[in-house]
């Protein structure tokens, strides 16, 4: 009898370790298009700095936010719905709408956490002169709209490119993307290149087109 009960006890313990997580605190919203335009005009235009000395290790990221969860887990919880995790905070289930390709994903392994301003781009924009502690603050910034759960495929396609080199497939997100990029660069006092600034200004132009069109609602999550 004891040998028959043991597998049941183990299975119950494992299942009991999965809990539904409530969403984390939302990041500060991106500024309105008019404010973003003013911030863009205030950014310093400069050539990209060399990648000499760059390493992702110079941006210590995914620090702990509590005993078990780290920043990556926190963003998955915040940006997903019906997110479940084990007691050690391994995300096991949920639904995530990826704004870059306008698709919903239910497999957490298909989701990446994107740094809106990529770490390598930040390095070329002035973060090469920061301390590692400052770079860690940037890489784990949950306050600015810097971290976003998106599909793994779009995040890998973006890489470390700026908006003059890569834009989301989802054109409806261009306005928000530009506003987020600008506010992050403005807060962290990072530079932009001429081409980057031109691309951002063009993307902000889609904000006017969206505001003059019919109201739209965000798609509701569904199975993919």
Secondary-structure topology with pairs:
Blueprint: H1 2-16, E1 19-21, H2 33-42, H3 71-79, E2 80-85, E3 91-98, E4 103-105, E5 111-115, H4 119-124, H5 132-139, E6 147-151, H6 152-158, H7 174-187, H8 194-212
Antiparallel strand pairs: 1-2, 2-3, 3-4, 5-6
Helix pairs in contact: 2-7, 2-8, 7-8
Overall geometry comes to globular
Structural category is alpha+beta
| CA-based gyration radius | 20 Å
Q: What integer is the average pLDDT? A: 88
Question: What is the β-strand count?
Answer: 6
* End-to-end gap: 43 Å
Tell me what portion of residues adopts beta-strand conformation: 5-15%
Element order, helices and strands?
A: HEHHEEEEHHEHHH
Secondary structure tally, helices: 8
Integer tally of domains: 1
Give the strand order of the largest sheet, numbering strands 1, 2, ... along the chain: 1-2-3-4
Poorly predicted parts: 1-16, 213-224
Q: Outline the biggest β-sheet.
A: 4 strands, antiparallel
State the helicity in percent bands.
Answer: 25-40%
